[in-house]
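Students often ask what a holo structure prediction actually looks like on paper. The answer is less mysterious than it sounds. You provide the chain, you provide the ligand, and the output is a string of discrete structure tokens encoding the 3D arrangement of the protein together with FE2/S2 (inorganic) cluster.
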Amino acid sequence: MSEAVCTQKAPYVVEAEEGKTYYYCTCGLSEKQPFCDGKHKGSGFSPIAHTAEKAGNIYFCGCRASKKGALCDGAHKTI
Ligand code: FES
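The corresponding structure tokens follow.
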């Protein structure tokens, strides 16, 4: 598997808890989007750990084209 799967052309909005670490799925195969469920095994992909600095919404990338890693940078508007 060489390319990550786009699971939606919009960010996943997650209400985060301050200090909590979230494991973002980079492969797109997880059934618990946008979080890793271990399905990346053997794909060459691995999750990104993202710790919330404060409580509030986090916009995780759904298209897997973001240049900001786990976070949406608006790239879904260009694909
Ligand atoms: S299931 Fe996609 S990175 Fe783990």
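The CA atoms of residues 60 and 70 lie 6 Å apart.
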